[in-house]
Design brief:
The protein has 59 residues and is an all-alpha fold. The protein is built from 3 helices and no strands. It has a domain of 37 residues. The chain is elongated. The two termini are 20 Å apart.
Length: 59
């Protein structure tokens, strides 16, 4: 499992793969956001967890 993550990290240094992966992740995040938009509490949890995941990623 960790080897797959290392390969993905290596792919992130290649612009030909980096930007499409960012675009796909962004679209998936927006789809999830739209899915949560009907309930304000769920929306707040989704955004909060997303921010937490992003913060942990940068540590």
């Amino acid at each position: 499992m960790f080897e797959a993550l290392e390969k993905l990290k290596g792919a992130m240094h290649r612009p030909g793969l980096k930007y499409p992966l960012i675009a796909i992740a962004s679209v998936l995040w927006l789809v999830g956001l739209v899915d949560q938009i009907s309930d304000p509490m769920q929306l707040a949890k989704y955004v909060g967890l997303s921010a937490l995941i992003a913060a942990v990623m940068w540590v």
